[in-house]
């Protein structure tokens, strides 16, 4: 089971990494979603004991480890918040610049690449 | 106001140190970081007394001088007087750091104070921050003293790893001669020598003369530069256990005496002459530490006191001359003796102290120096006479050019505040030459710490032809000749200066700083080129670290397949489904397809959680996935059609790059996660405790209790994140307005 969970998490991570490298911002966001799923699967997989759900422990018998579950809950909720924010950002970018492609956006963000250079050389302290 | 406050603080410090010294000192040792064996250990012993009295005593006079000097300096540059706020706190902190360094007896503590002095000096040297030269000088001083200071820390850790303590007295008691001691001693010596501006790391000191004069007078006579020899004196019993270290000290010391002296002979700017003189004079002290023995240890301590008094007087007088005339070059000055007789006399006394003339403390310091050198064979005897002759010549030239001859630039009236400290220091120098016993007692105490055995010094005038007197006479005669042979002297000095500029360490320093900046700029440009390289900049080092961790840990039995029982047979196909959906999400270009694949991944995992006995997680996952799917659909509904079919602008070789990177990182993640999941601890201790306590927290569901109670603060943070995200989303959708 350990092997299976590790394999599933690895597929999620690999696909997430692939998507992160893409030029479309929508796919980048998808990649982040997959990587956070990978994290949650790993947390659940790291449960130290297996048994009944940790509800009403007084009934007896082995229980599943409750701590990773609590951590996974936090991760899930925060992951959702992050994704919603990212999607809203992408939406805003598309509304403002009319594209969600990084190559096209790069030309949009840098109106004066020369000015930057000048600032850096003015603060030159080395010799 | 601030200046006089600092001055008063230094005076109080001086009195406290004096009382502590008279009472015989004492030690304090408090735990600092027990897990690392670090203690706040201070001892007010002989060495601490000497340097604390020097730092506070010279501090009082320099600070008093500075109150007037700084005002004039700021007024001349049309700068607001409020800038004093950037000056006095650093000066006061510097004095405090110096006292701390003098009293610290823990190597890590020594390192901390050592760096604190460097940081203060950075801000003080760079006080005139509008001038580029001042900024560069400050940076050079900082880098050249702080980078070798890391060697001090490395040496301390090396000694700790062998002897299990950072405490210098304990190390002195236990350290054995050997390779470790030699290496650690060399590391510590490098840090100390760089701080004391010894060749080849001396070049920061002449540049640091960009600082206002009180800074030069203080940092470069009684404090910053003295910190190096202070550390040498403190750890000297350790250094003395290695012949290699002692030889290095001798060679570096004598080279510094020669290089500093010869360069001082030819300099034109007042403070430059004094800076090279400082290099040369601390070379004497380092040489003395290179010779082992009671006489040498005591002489080194005596030398430090006398030199600090004389050199701060000379710096203050140089500042007074520049303030009065507006000139800072010997070639444009001269004949000031008739117009400023008091200053000329006081400066003359200070110069005579350096030249070791009788009736000044300098005579005794050279007498002790000669006596120690004589014990160490003919080579050192000759070298010491030559060194004294060089000193006699350059300081003689300095004083004669400044105060004798025709008047070159007429001086304005000098404020007494600028004059009195020089006179006081000159009086101290004369007092030391008439009644040397207070300084002798001080130096004996300090020498006893450096030598780790009692030291007795008996400086006195003897009217006979004993060896030390003959050596002194020879030094004066040679120095007089050098003073007379102006042409030869100037040519030699210029030759050495040119050679130093061509081949010197300063060039290497500049090249390495520029090279480092270039590398850093290139890395920065590459890292911020686009999102892809930013991601790579995180992922590649993370992957490399994980790989290194795997290379360093044993792999045998580190991976287990794990049992499959009961509901796990249902989990397996679900995981396969999740995997397929993931690959679909990665491959598809249809936006709707991406959303559906993501939903399949999410709901599949929710089912897995349900089967793994985690109903709470499963329920929340279903809820979250439902919302996310809806949010995604809503967001994509507003975006144009499909994703572009092909990633354009690619070269052919790069087509396989992304899948390759993804495969490698997936495999890496697989190894890491599998290894991590394969090694569970035996007992779930925290969880068992939480399960036991859940009923007491009025809950049946342990997970709920953990979220709401045991880890309630985390949950509060999580809610805050949700709130911030919600505000962000609302603002973004509302075109920059929240409502």
UniProtKB/TrEMBL annotation, chain A:
Q: How does it sit in the membrane?
A: Multi-pass membrane protein
Q: Compositional bias (Basic and acidic residues) spans?
A: 117-127
User: Which keywords does the record carry?
Assistant: Cell membrane, Membrane, Transmembrane, Transmembrane helix
Q: What is its main location?
A: membrane
TM ranges are 27-49, 70-90
Q: Where in the cell is it found?
A: Cell membrane
PANTHER family in UniProt: ANTIPORTER SUBUNIT MNHC2-RELATED (PTHR34583:SF2)
| Name the UniProt record assigns to this protein | Multisubunit sodium/proton antiporter MrpC subunit
Lineage of this protein's species? Answer: Bacteria, Bacillati, Actinomycetota, Actinomycetes, Pseudonocardiales
From TrEMBL, chain B:
Q: What is this protein called?
A: Multicomponent Na+:H+ antiporter subunit A
Recorded GO CC terms? plasma membrane
User: Which is a GO BP term held by this UniProt record?
Assistant: monoatomic ion transport
Q: Which PANTHER family match?
A: NA(+)/H(+) ANTIPORTER SUBUNIT, NA(+)_H(+) ANTIPORTER SUBUNIT A
Chain segments annotated as transmembrane: 46-66, 87-104, 110-127, 139-163, 183-205, 217-239, 245-266, 273-294, 300-321, 342-359, 379-400, 412-435, 467-488, 531-552, 564-585, 592-611, 617-639, 660-677, 719-738
Report domain MrpA C-terminal/MbhE positions.
654-737
Kindly name one Pfam family recorded for this protein.
MbhE
Give this protein's Gene Ontology molecular function annotations. Answer: antiporter activity
- Signal peptide residues on this chain, from the entry's feature table: none
* Species this chain originates from: Actinomycetospora cinnamomea
- Give the way it sits in the membrane: Multi-pass membrane protein
* Residues annotated as domain NADH:quinone oxidoreductase/Mrp antiporter transmembrane: 104-391
Please indicate if the UniProt record lists Zinc as a keyword: no
Major localization listed first in the record, in broad terms: membrane
Is the Acetylation keyword given for this protein? no
The highest taxon in the source lineage is Bacteria
Keywords on this record?
A: Antiport, Cell membrane, Ion transport, Membrane, Transmembrane, Transmembrane helix, Transport
Where does the NADH-Ubiquinone oxidoreductase (complex I) chain 5 N-terminal domain lie? 34-72
Instruction: Cite the MrpA C-terminal/MbhD domain residue spans from the record.
Output: 576-640
Which InterPro entries does the protein's record reference?
Answer: CPA3_Na-H_Antiporter_A (IPR050616), MrpA_C/MbhD (IPR025383), MrpA_C/MbhE (IPR046806), ND/Mrp_TM (IPR001750), Proton_antipo_N (IPR001516)
Q: Where in the cell is it found?
A: Cell membrane; Membrane
């Amino acid at each position: 089971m350990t092997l299976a969970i590790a394999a599933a998490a690895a597929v999620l991570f690999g696909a997430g990494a692939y998507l992160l490298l893409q030029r479309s911002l929508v796919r980048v966001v998808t990649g982040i979603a997959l990587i956070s799923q990978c994290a949650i699967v790993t947390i659940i997989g790291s449960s130290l004991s297996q048994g009944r759900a940790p509800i009403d422990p007084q009934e007896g018998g082995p229980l599943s480890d409750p701590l990773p579950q609590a951590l996974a809950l936090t991760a899930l909720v925060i992951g959702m918040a992050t994704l919603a924010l990212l999607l809203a950002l992408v939406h805003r970018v598309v509304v403002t610049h009319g594209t969600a492609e990084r190559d096209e956006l790069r030309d949009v963000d840098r109106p004066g690449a020369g000015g930057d250079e000048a600032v850096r050389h003015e603060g030159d302290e080395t010799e | 106001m601030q200046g006089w406050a600092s001055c008063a603080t230094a005076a109080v410090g001086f009195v406290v140190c004096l009382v502590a010294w008279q009472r015989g000192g004492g030690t304090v040792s408090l735990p600092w970081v027990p897990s690392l064996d670090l203690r706040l250990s201070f001892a007010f012993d002989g060495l601490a007394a000497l340097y604390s009295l020097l730092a506070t005593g010279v501090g009082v006079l320099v600070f008093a001088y500075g109150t007037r000097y700084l005002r004039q300096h700021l007024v001349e540059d049309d700068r607001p007087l409020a800038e004093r706020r950037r000056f006095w706190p650093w000066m006061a902190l510097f004095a405090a750091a110096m006292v701390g360094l003098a009293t610290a007896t823990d190597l890590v503590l020594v390192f901390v104070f050592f760096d604190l002095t460097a940081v203060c000096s950075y801000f003080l040297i760079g006080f005139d921050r509008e001038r580029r030269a001042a900024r560069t000088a400050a940076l050079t001083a900082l880098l050249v003293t702080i980078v070798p200071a890391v060697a001090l820390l490395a040496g301390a850790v090396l000694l700790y790893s062998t002897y299990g303590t950072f405490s210098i007295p304990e190390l002195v008691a236990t350290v054995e001669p050997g390779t470790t001691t030699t290496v650690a001693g060399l590391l510590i010596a490098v840090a100390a020598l760089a701080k004391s501006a010894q060749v080849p790391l001396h070049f920061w000191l002449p540049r640091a003369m960009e600082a206002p004069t009180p800074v030069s007078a203080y940092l470069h006579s009684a404090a910053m530069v003295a910190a190096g020899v202070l550390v040498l004196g403190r750890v000297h019993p350790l250094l003395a256990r290695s012949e290699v270290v002692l030889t290095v000290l001798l060679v570096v010391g004598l080279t510094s005496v020669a290089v500093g002296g010869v360069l001082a002979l030819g300099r034109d700017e007042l403070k430059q002459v004094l800076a090279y003189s400082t290099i040369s004079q601390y070379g004497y002290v380092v040489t003395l530490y290179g010779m082992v023995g009671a006489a040498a240890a005591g002489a080194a301590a005596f030398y430090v006191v006398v030199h600090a008094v004389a050199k701060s007087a000379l710096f203050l007088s140089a500042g007074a001359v520049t303030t009065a005339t507006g000139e800072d070059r010997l070639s444009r000055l001269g004949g000031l003796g008739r117009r400023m007789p008091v200053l000329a006399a006081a400066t003359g006394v200070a110069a005579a102290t350096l030249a070791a003339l009788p009736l000044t403390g300098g005579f005794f310091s050279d007498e002790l120096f000669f006596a120690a050198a004589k014990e160490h064979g003919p080579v050192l005897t000759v070298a010491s006479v030559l060194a004294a002759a060089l000193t006699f010549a350059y300081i003689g030239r300095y004083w004669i050019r400044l105060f004798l001859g025709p008047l070159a630039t007429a001086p304005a009236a000098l404020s007494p505040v600028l004059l009195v400290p020089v006179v006081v220091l000159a009086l101290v120098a004369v007092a030391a030459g008439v009644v040397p016993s207070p300084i002798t007692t001080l130096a004996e105490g300090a020498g006893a710490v450096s030598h780790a055995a009692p030291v007795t010094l008996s400086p006195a005038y003897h009217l006979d032809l004993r060896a030390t007197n003959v050596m002194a006479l020879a030094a004066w005669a040679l120095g007089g000749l050098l003073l007379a042979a102006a042409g030869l002297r100037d040519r030699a000095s210029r030759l050495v200066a040119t050679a130093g500029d061509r081949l010197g360490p300063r060039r290497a320093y500049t090249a390495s700083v520029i090279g480092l900046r270039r590398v850093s700029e290139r890395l920065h440009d590459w890292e911020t080129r686009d999102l892809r390289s930013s991601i790579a900049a995180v992922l590649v080092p993370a992957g490399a670290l994980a790989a290194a961790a795997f290379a360093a840990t044993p792999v045998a039995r580190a991976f287990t397949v794990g049992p499959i029982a009961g509901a796990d047979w249902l989990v397996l196909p679900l995981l396969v489904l999740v995997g397929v959906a993931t690959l679909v999400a990665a491959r598809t270009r249809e936006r709707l397809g991406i959303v559906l694949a993501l939903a399949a991944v999410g709901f599949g995992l929710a089912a897995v959680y349900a089967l793994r006995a985690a109903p709470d997680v499963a329920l929340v996952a279903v809820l979250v996935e439902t919302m996310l799917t809806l949010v995604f659909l809503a967001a994509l509904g507003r975006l144009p059609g499909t994703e572009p079919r092909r990633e354009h602008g690619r070269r052919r070789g790069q087509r396989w790059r992304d899948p390759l990177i993804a495969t490698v990182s997936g495999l890496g993640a697989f190894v890491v996660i599998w290894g991590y999941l394969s090694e569970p601890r035996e007992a779930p201790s925290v969880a068992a405790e939480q399960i036991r306590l859940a009923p007491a927290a009025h809950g049946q569901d342990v997970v709920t209790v953990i979220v709401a109670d045991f880890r309630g603060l985390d949950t509060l943070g999580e809610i805050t994140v949700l709130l911030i995200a919600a505000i962000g989303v609302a603002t973004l959708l509302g075109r920059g307005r929240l409502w």
